[in-house]
Structures are given as C-alpha cells and as structure tokens.
Design brief:
- The chain contains 25 helices and 11 strands.
- The strands form 4 sheets. The protein has a 4-stranded mixed sheet. A 3-stranded antiparallel sheet has the order 5-11-6, sandwiched between helices.
C-alpha cells in the first residue's frame, strides 16, 4: 500500500497490487514536473498561501475518482440501469489514471501560455499521454491501448460516458478537489464542502436528451443531496467571486499574458533572444494549426515550469524595450495594474479603442515611454476584462460569454502598424463562441461534448427514486435564482500612475 499524507484528504492510499499503475505514473518525469506548476498560477499575489501545485491537486483528483467510483459500484441496481454503468468496475483503473493525468499538460502560470499560443492544456495532456513519453510507456505496459483510452477520457470522447462525466462535468472529481484544496490553501473557506455527505449522496441515473436516446448521468440523490448540491454551487459562486476572479489576480494574469505576447513579438522581429524552450512554445502563436505543431516541440514544453518563466521575467527587467522592461519590473515588484469598472452595458468598440490610446497618451505625458519617446502601444496601456476574456466559463454562475481569441489578435492599419484589442481580441474582432461547460482553475475543454450529451455536460443532476435525472435549477429555487441572475464581470486595468485620471474618464462615459 502506498500512503500519501495530504492536507485536504489526510491519508491517500493506493494498493500496489491493484492500483500500482497510479504510483508508477506519479513517478514519471512528466508527472513530477507538476511539482513546479502552481495550481492557482498567480493567485499568490492575492492569497500568499496559494502556492500549492498541480501535483497535489492531481493526486487528490485520482483519490476522489477512486472514492466516487467505489460509491457508485455499491449501487448495483442503478449501475445496471445506466448506460456505461455496467463497465464501471472494469474501467475503474482507467478512470483513476485519467483523473491523475487530466492536468499533466498544464503549462506555467496557469492560463497565460495558453492565451498566447492558442494551445489548450488538454491538447498538451493528450500529447503527453500518447506521445511516447514515460507516461505512455507506463500505460502501455499495463495494457496495450490504455494510453489512447486515457487520452479519450481526457478529451471527452471515450465510449464510457460515466467515467467521462465523473472527470469532466458540472459535478466531477476535478471540481470537488479544487474547491476543497483552493479554499484550504487560500484561507477562503467558501469551498469547505461536506465531502463525506456529497459522496454518500452520489447516484447514477438517466436522462433523455432527445427522443429515442438515453444518457447516463452522475448526480446526487434528490431527497438526501439537495442541500449539498446547493452548497456545492454556492461554494463555486463564492470561489469565483473572491478567488478565481479576484481583481488583483486577474490584473497579474493579464499582465503576464501581455508580457509573453510582447516577448513573442520582439522575438519575431529579432529584437529579443528567448530561452530556447520558451521561444519554441511562444512561436506556436504564428502557426496556422498550433495544436498540430505542438507535437514537434513536446520536449521543449515539458522543460517549462513556473520557475523557468519567472527567470525570464527577472532577466527582462533590463531590456531596452519599454513594454517588456516595464511589465517585467511591475510583476517582479508586485506593482500591478489597477482595476476600474466599466459602465454597465459596456462600451462600443470604437470607444474602447479610444480608451486604449488615451491611456497610452497619459503614460507618455508622465514620462512612461521608450527612450526614443515613442509611447507604449495602447493595447499594453489598458487591459479589458469581461466574460469574453476571462478563462473561466460557468453555465450556472457566469454570463455565457464568447470564447476569447488568443491574446494579441491584431489587424493591420494603413501605416503597417498593428492595432490590438486588450485582453485577447483585435479591436472589432468577434471572438469564437465558447462552450458553456468549462471549468474554473482546471480550465475548460477545447472539445465540445458529444451531440447526445451536450446538456448533460453543463448540468448538475439530481436523481429521483426512479433513477430519473432532474436538472438542479428545476429542483432548487436558490440555484434557479442564481442561474437567472448570473454575474457579469466588466473591468479595465491600467497602471496605478493613471488610475485616477482614467477612473474620472470612465465616470464621464456613464
């Protein structure tokens, strides 16, 4: 028996005879790398205790998958009635391995690398699992074809929809662990769920998404579990509001995204020599199909950690480019951009562009420009943060915004310069639609759910006595109210030196 002490779950144990694969996967270099990737990226700027890693979270998710599966296995009648439930015992180890490896593709600093390159962490995870790595070899040694099955579960395309939904749905092992763990490590106790009652209330049921089809659903007992379901959703609500979307954390995230974008621009222009691995990864932004190109540089990606990227930030503090130098110095010194609320209803695109240029002009007036007097480009002087730019989507709690394009989308002006929209899209560019089934710190899936269970992936289900799935907001007035009054996030961020001037400007626009 392998025993691990964990601050959230206390003792985590894996049987070396039946679950030895999990221990062997933990020991691979690719998984050990997660020691050096913080779970909450830049949240330590807001919550000093938020230095826990993807490593501990991933082990916690595997542990919860084991507990969730074993609870469902105990309900033999429901297991036989739900499509895929009869394979749950056979796929138990597969489910645990996918849970352990679901975040193995996360890059440094949370979503910052993803925003610049356009390659989602789940694409990297699938590459690591199937790309001939030590992880691949461990999986294939256990059973030929297992690596592809694990990748399919992570990518939500595996035939057993029960284990897919246990890992990736609105009530899954990933969310459960990160709510508990993030609450504990930040000290924001909103996510302190009654885990034991939640597991006790777990049920398998069925829904009918369309006539003639039946889908297996993972949910909670309608009679016993309604209160814990409400607690689960309220925990998410408060963690979004006070942790994941905290204005200080979002300021740091946007600064890092734009700093990496500037580094990529300078490297493309020959004005900056990047560390080889970072340069290879940032160069993906210029590729027509960055996910396909990612396969060739998997080794470079695996050598990146939070520490290697922060080392570059420290080095760039003396670079002659005013954007690269200033953003690096501000991040290292925690001199973060300051949040200002946008007028209710937002602003038209042309007015937002004017604000970008005005912010740049005000910085130049204060002497914050390059050595040759050129102003900092507007897209680096003001950042936009709305439901279209935040990396998290939630169909219960957040507006159904559009998926943001990669940071740094731009269009050429008549003079050959580039005009970019802060926060991720070019001015006037319409981002692609987002799926509503995204997760918070774990990030949303790049792949849409299968046709038959699109609704299943975005719903929390309650299971009645007959095994029928009832969507949570139909059973709970509290959740119905939350769903009908989802909170919008509309802010801009500017350097502290011009905060008061820009605040007055925004007030005048209301």
């Amino acid at each position: 028996m392998k025993t691990i002490r964990d601050p959230v779950h206390n003792l985590i144990q894996f049987d070396l005879k039946t679950e030895g694969l999990i221990v062997r996967l933990i020991d691979t270099p690719e998984f050990q790398r997660l020691h050096h990737i913080r779970q909450l990226g830049l949240s330590f700027f807001t919550y000093p205790g938020a230095t826990h890693t993807r490593f501990s979270h991933s082990i916690g998710v595997a542990h919860l998958m084991k507990r969730f599966v074993d609870r469902l296995l105990a309900d033999e009648g429901a297991r036989r009635a739900a499509p895929g439930g009869e394979r749950l015992k056979e796929d138990r180890l597969l489910a645990m391995a996918a849970a352990l490896l679901h975040d193995i593709g996360h890059g440094p600093l949370s979503h910052a690398i993803e925003a610049v390159t356009g390659v989602h962490h789940e694409a990297w995870s699938r590459l690591i699992v199937t790309g001939g790595t030590a992880v691949t070899r461990a999986l294939e040694a256990e059973r030929p074809g297992l690596a592809q099955e694990v990748a399919d579960v992570i990518g939500r395309s595996h035939a057993n929809r029960v284990i897919v939904k246990l890992l990736s749905s609105q009530l899954d092992v990933d969310r459960t662990d990160y709510l508990l763990r993030d609450a504990h490590m930040t000290g924001a106790r909103y996510g302190a769920l009654d885990l034991e009652w939640l597991i006790h209330s777990l049920r398998l049921g069925v829904s009918v998404p369309r006539e003639g089809s039946v889908e297996a659903e993972v949910g909670l007992d309608l009679e016993k579990g309604l209160s814990i379901a409400e607690d689960f959703m309220m925990a998410r609500f408060y963690m979004y509001r006070h942790v994941y979307l905290h204005k200080t954390t979002r300021a740091a995230e946007l600064m890092v995204q734009h700093l990496l974008l500037r580094a990529a621009e300078l490297a493309e222009a020959g004005a900056l020599t990047l560390p080889p691995a970072l340069g290879a990864v940032l160069a993906l932004r210029a590729r027509r199909d960055p996910e396909q190109a990612a396969e060739a540089i998997l080794g470079a990606f695996l050598s990146l950690t939070d520490a290697t990227v922060w080392s570059a930030f420290f080095d760039w503090q003396e670079h002659p480019d005013p954007v690269l130098r200033t953003l690096s110095r501000r991040l290292v010194a925690r001199d973060l951009y300051k949040a200002l609320p946008l007028p209710e209803g937002g602003l038209p695109t042309d007015r937002l562009y004017e604000l970008h240029e005005e912010a740049a002009d005000r910085l130049r007036a204060r002497g914050l420009a390059g050595p040759d007097g050129r102003p900092i480009p507007g897209r680096y002087a003001l950042f936009l943060d709305t439901e279209e730019t935040i990396p998290y989507k939630d169909p219960y709690l957040l507006p159904a915004g559009r998926r943001p394009a990669a940071v740094g989308g731009s269009k050429k002006e008549s003079d050959g310069s580039e005009k970019g929209g802060a926060g991720g899209t070019a001015v006037g560019e319409v981002p692609a639609p987002a799926e509503d089934d995204a997760r918070a710190p774990g990030g949303e899936s790049a792949a849409a759910p299968a046709d038959g269970d699109a609704e299943s992936m975005v719903a929390v289900w309650m299971i009645d006595r007959e095994g029928r799935a009832v969507e949570l907001s139909r059973a709970s007035e509290l959740i119905r109210f939350l769903r009908e009054h989802r909170h919008a996030y509309r802010r801009v961020y500017v350097p502290r030196e011009i905060r008061e001037e820009m605040a007055a400007r925004l007030r005048a626009l209301r």
